[in-house]
Design goal:
Length: 187
């Protein structure tokens, strides 16, 4: 009888370990990150001052590229509409920003933030002018960094039992081509 009980216990332990092995990885894809960002787009309507000119900006579209060219960064290609207020008049503008940032996982918040934002490319089209935003790059980066430092780009869904189990231990996040991969830290 002891032998059968021991065998049953061993089989249950092996079955549990194999299921735990399947649960040791979780991935966030570009599509999932884009979906989360789309939900945040209404919050990205901002009023700011850039180079002393009042600017009201609304993000229209955001495309995500995780780990391009085997790098450890996330690229965001953003299209925004803006209204520049100058001399009591409002001028519509279209802007495109391509930024690159390093993803960071905050275990306490169970969320992914973007840090060390770099502006890769920028352009503006307003009132017949078409050019880049180089003269106001630092101010644009401060605006973007200010938002991203306080708002996660992705929050783990703790209603998902798999994520609840995985996040009970410290997690390591790795950037892979097209996804962010989470796995328990091996000690």
């Amino acid at each position: 009888m002891k032998f059968i009980l021991s065998l049953l216990l061993l089989l249950m332990l092996l079955a549990g370990c194999s299921q735990l092995q399947q649960l040791t990885a979780y991935n966030v894809t570009e599509a999932e990150l884009e979906q989360m960002l789309r939900q945040q787009v209404p919050e990205l309507t901002r009023r700011a001052t850039v180079a002393g000119i009042p600017l009201s900006m609304k993000v229209e579209q955001m495309l995500v590229d995780i780990g391009p060219n085997n790098s450890d960064v996330v690229r965001l290609d953003t299209t925004a509409s803006a209204a520049l207020s100058l001399f009591g008049l409002s001028y519509p503008a279209n802007m495109q920003l391509k930024i690159e940032a390093v993803p960071y996982y905050d275990g306490a918040a169970k969320a992914i933030y973007l840090r060390s934002v770099k502006l890769l490319n920028s352009s503006i089209e307003a009132a017949g002018y078409r050019g880049n935003l180089a003269p106001v790059t630092n101010e644009m980066l401060q605006l973007i960094n200010g938002y991203l430092s306080n708002h996660p780009v992705y929050t783990l869904d703790m209603t998902n039992p798999t994520l609840t189990l995985i996040s009970a231990v410290p997690l390591n996040m790795a950037v892979q081509d097209g996804q962010l991969s989470f796995s328990p830290i091996k000690r």
